[in-house]
Fold:
Amino acid sequence: MGASPIDKYEGADVVYTFGAGSFGTVLFFVLACALFVAFMVRVVLHENHAYAAIIAHMPPEPGPVVEGEPEVAAI
Amino acid sequence: MTPEVQTALDLQSATNNEFFYWMSIALMIAIHAGFLAYEAGASRSKNVLASSMKNLLTFAVVISTFFFFGWFLYNSMMTGVPRLGDAAKAAVPWSANMGPNITDSASGIFWGAFALFAATTGSILSGAVLERIRTSAFLILAVVLGSAVWIIGAAWGWHPAGWMLTELGFHDVGAAGCVHLIAGAFTLGVLINLGPRIGRFNADGSANTIRPHNLPLTMLGLMLIFIGFFGFLMGCVIYSGTGYTTIYGTPTTLSTFAFNTLMGLAGGIIGAYIASRGEPFWTISGGLAGIITIAAGMDLYHPGLAFVLALGGGAMIPFLGKFIERFGIDDVVGAVTVHGGCGALSLILSGIFLNGYPNMPGLPDVTLGGQLIGLVVFVALGFIPGFAISWGLKKAKMLRIPAEVELAGLDLSEVPALPYPEGFGPSEGGTLNGGNGNGNGAVPAFKPEAIPHKPSDI
Structure:
């Protein structure tokens, strides 16, 4: 994958992958933003699941009961 | 090319010592280590990991969004409205300056220092809303505050071409207004909608104390913040390799900042000790209050004056904290008091004592009126979005955790880990057993059947 915007360092300025204003740079910027939004959605989903579990007296995660968790079967 | 853009470009191109700002960034990370310890200690033991995770995520989301759009806002909003000048074009994330560029040794290091300032504003909000805000809601608010609101304020009043400087002669060298006051006002807006922790206030409006589960950790956290403040203040000056100027271009020295930072720290601690009668939380917070109180004019105060002003700021915070409490505001770490109150006081005091001081040629002198206008602008800039966005989140039922979860503790539900070894159980909630939920390890284990089952009305 040829991501280099330069073929030598003499006279170069921008050396980052794909180069300034290139399609590749914009593409990965958009991807980074999309992943950030996906992370935020994941946080909300995790919260909803965890809150529902604790309200239902169920451990948020399967496995042995740890100290302080409700003593009910794992979900 | 406009004079503002030329000034901004000159400011950046004159910076020829990357290492200075590299160290500033590294030291400022100590602020976030400090906030993490501070807030973990201030939480009850049932929320200690959730509080710590919130701090960690603050760092991540504010820094990334500050790259996405925050730096662009700083470089495009100097005149008050967005303008796509050369500096703004250089700050878009796909520009030649926003990544490895062997001819540009300034952009990344300045961006990094400002990104750490931005994360600091998020951490200021973080402590106030402990133990009952949804992490997702908090992260949204931290992004708005850290990557949009404060940096717009900085473009207006903490930039050599900002309109508050060019029109009012505004002076806020240590960012008392644009960081602390804006963050404090934003936090107040959020707290009004968020409401207090369960058990914090009685039906008659009287307050209960919900004690920190680890006050020594909180005190250590503030000591780390003091270390980080030296990095913060490194970022408040421009180093050209031949000398230092303030962010407004006026000459200064690091010696100046050493005198007044340390005298402010000392004065604030002493003032808070006197006023709180030695209460540890307020006393250690007094150090922070002292530095913020003198921050706006710390390049020009005599250290004796700085000490006196800082002592006054430190002495003010216990009373201001109690005053805010009377309105049913549950500010867990006193963020509105320390950052908002002392930030405002700093602008007022600088207006009084620096009235008539010159700015760079062609710019208005510092005046009390200019400082007061700046104060009002920053309060509005912080409070309005903080209140409006948290109100929207509240209406969408996305702001606050369910009451059952609050009583059980966030560590049991949201964090798949336990903070302490076996034998040190999580604390119970403030209203389950009539106690205050200190969680000192002697409380009985969590009893889910004790939680009242009713739909959350929050």
